[in-house]
Amino acid sequence: MSDNSYNHMCLSVLGNELRLNIIASLQTKELSVTDLCDQLGKEQSAVSHALQQLRHCSFVDYKKNGKERVYFLKSKIFKEKNKPIFELVSEHVQTYCKGKH
Ligand SMILES: [Zn+2]
C-alpha cells in the first residue's frame, strides 16, 4: 500500500471536530474522561467513542488511576502544535500506524 493510503486512514480519524478537540485538550495536559466531558461540553458516550477511535490509531492512550482512566497524548509528534497538520499526520503514520491499520 502507498504511504498516502495510510495517511488517509489516520486523517479520517482526525477529520472530526470532537476528536480534534480531544487532541488539542490533551496537548496541554492529561485528562480523565470526566474532565474531557466537562471541558468540551459533550456526553460521556460521545467522548468515550471518540477516545476509542483515537486510541486505535495510537493518537492517545490511557493509564489507570484507581477506577479512572486518565488519557494522554501517545503520539509525541502531536505535541508539536505549530507544525502543519499534513506533516504531523505523515510523521504519525511512519512512526505509529504503518502496517497496523
Ligand atoms: Zn493511524
UniProtKB/TrEMBL annotation:
Keywords: DNA-binding, Transcription, Transcription regulation. Gene3D superfamilies: Winged helix-like DNA-binding domain superfamily/Winged helix DNA-binding domain. Pfam families: HTH_5. It comes from the Archaea. Residues 1-93 form the HTH arsR-type domain. SMART domains: HTH_ARSR. The keyword Methyltransferase does not apply. GO terms for molecular function: DNA binding; DNA-binding transcription factor activity. InterPro entries: ArsR-like_HTH (IPR011991), HTH_ArsR_DNA-bd_dom (IPR001845), Metal_resp_trans_reg (IPR051011), WH-like_DNA-bd_sf (IPR036388), WH_DNA-bd_sf (IPR036390). This is Winged helix-turn-helix transcriptional regulator. It comes from Candidatus Iainarchaeum sp.
